[in-house]
Each structure stands twice: as C-alpha cells, then as structure tokens.
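== Sequence and structure of one protein ==
=== Format: two labelled lines per protein ===
==== Data for this protein ====
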Amino acid sequence: MDGSLSPALLEARERFLAATAAHEETRTERLPRVFPPVKRGLWQWKGAVAGALEDIADTLLPNERRRLRRRATALRLCGRYMRVRVCEACEEPRSGSGVTCATERAFPCQARLCPFCERSRSSALAEELLVQVGQVEQQAKERAKRLGDELEAEIAKHQAKADAEEIAEHARKRQLEAVRKRKRKLSELRAVEKYAWRFITLTVAYDPYNPEEMTVEALRERALGLHRAMQHLWDEGLNRGGLGCNALFTKIEMSTNGFVHLHAMYYGGFIPQKWFEETAREAYEDCGFSWLESVEEGDAQGCVREVAKYVTKSAGPMCEDWLAGEDRWAIHPVLAARWEVAMLGMDVCRRYGLLRGLPEIEEEDESDE
C-alpha cells in the first residue's frame, strides 16, 4: 500500500507519526489531571459535591456563605422522595425511573449539575424549543414577505422619481442609489426562503493539567468569554444585517474534564467556518475550534428535535442505572462545586432574534434567604 503513495505523502506521514509519538511520550510524563472524573454512586457523589460547596462557602462573605450552604443542603435532600414507574410485566416499582426531585418543605435545589433538577429543566426547555422552531420559521417567512413588499413599493417610488425628466442630475443619482440599496436588501430577504436550522459548537482552549485554569474565576471567565464571542458573532453577521428573520439559541456547559464549551441552534443562511472562528476570537481570543452542521432537509422536524435535545441536555450523568444505585463515572465533586459557584447569577442559556419571545426558564432560585 505504501508503494502507491508519493514520496511527499510518505514523508508527511512519517512526520505525523513521529509528532504523534513525541506527543504521547510527553503526555505520559505530565502530571495527572487536576480533577479527573470519579466513579461513584449517585448519593455518594451528591454528598461529595455538597461538601465541596460548603468548603467554598467558608471562604465567602456571610450573606453569600449562607446562600451557598442552603444550596448544599438542598442538593443533599434533592431526590429523596420520588414518583417511580411500575414495571408492566411484574408490577414492581422501578427504582431507577424517578421523575421528581424534592422533599416536602425543602428549599429548591436548582443546582446546575443536580441530575434531578437539571433533567427536569432541560426536558422543559427542549419541549419549548421544539414548539418555537415551527413558529420561528413561520415568523421569518412572514416578516421577509412583508418587508419585501414594502421594499418593492419603495423601489418603484424611487425609480419613478429617478425617471422623471424634470429632476436634477444630483437628485437623480440619490434616487438611483436608494434603489440600489433597497435592491440589495431585497435580495437578502429573498434568501430567507433558503434558511435552515444549523447546529453549532464553539469550544475554549484550556489545560486540564493546570490548577490555575480550574479555579472558580477561570471557569467563569471562560463562560463569559463564550457569551461575548456569540454576541459579537451575532452583531457582526449572524443577524444578517438586522433583518429580523434569524434566530439563535445558545447554552454553555462543562464536560467531566472541565472542558467549557457552547452548543447552539441557529436559524439562518450558510456560515463560513473560517469567518466564524476568526470573528469569535476577536471578542475572546481563547476560543478554540468550532463545529457547524446543517440540519437535514428531509426530516427537519426530527433532526431539530435531536439537536434541541442535545443542546439542552443535562450536564449531570443522569441514567436509570445510576438512580438504581450503581456506580458511574461522573465529574469530580470539587470541580462540580466550582462550576456551580462560577455560574451563580449567570444565564447558561441565551436567545437572540426571533427566539427572544420564548418564555424564559427559571434556572435558579436566588431568593433562598
């Protein structure tokens, strides 16, 4: 097989294999990750996260300390009582199918990584997005048609003024320039018919072996940087000149290794990936690679459903086996607690354009005094 390759390709492959081997050798010599994933049961993990929250609370001011301690207590209680499904065959309750999250008279947990609260929030948000998807498409086309009719009327008016014999030459040029501007905008509006939903992922470069990049401040800065980048992208081109026919939904999450990234659903035209990444780095230089994918036209609703579920998926490792008592790999408790504190008071989800009319999901209760 190597004989079919050109000398240049063989040389490039040898360089790649050598670089890969050197990277793996260097990687094995590095220190272990600051907060590697842990394999624990659900309640053991929740208790460890609550304990880490209390440790952080000890370093805060009294008011903030009290709020964070109550959140830790609520996290421990969350899910103690649940409604479960019954097996249709044996009529035995399925302990891993719990759907509720709070004990009676307990403060609401609403933790970012609480498996119960986050799953409930994510499910409600996904259903709302699915309803809004059809409304966005309809509103975009109706708005494009209405604006298009208005522009055509304005073009006809300015063209008639330009064609008048008694008009001065400088005034004729102004009228023709107005016609050209409106025709350009009209061509952009006609492109709305080809708009489609697109799935976007934007990442942030970080070092999981560096303790300074795993602090509360560093995690919060990466999340804020992603928000700044998406706002800049929206202002610079995703809103398509402010026509009001686009929509964008974004959600920030963190993986089990501390990898902060952003998922988004965008309704609009084609997005050049090079422009997307360069523009994102203008607002936040630590932005990493991106992933842009169009939703297939054949099954738009089904594809959007899957994308909506992925974009709004729970950050906690929720599964029936974990609820039933089995151990599962999960985010390190200290890292989970730091992420919880880092995201206090910050919107995880943001909406732009036509999606601004979507009812907001109450992501956390700040009134637990």
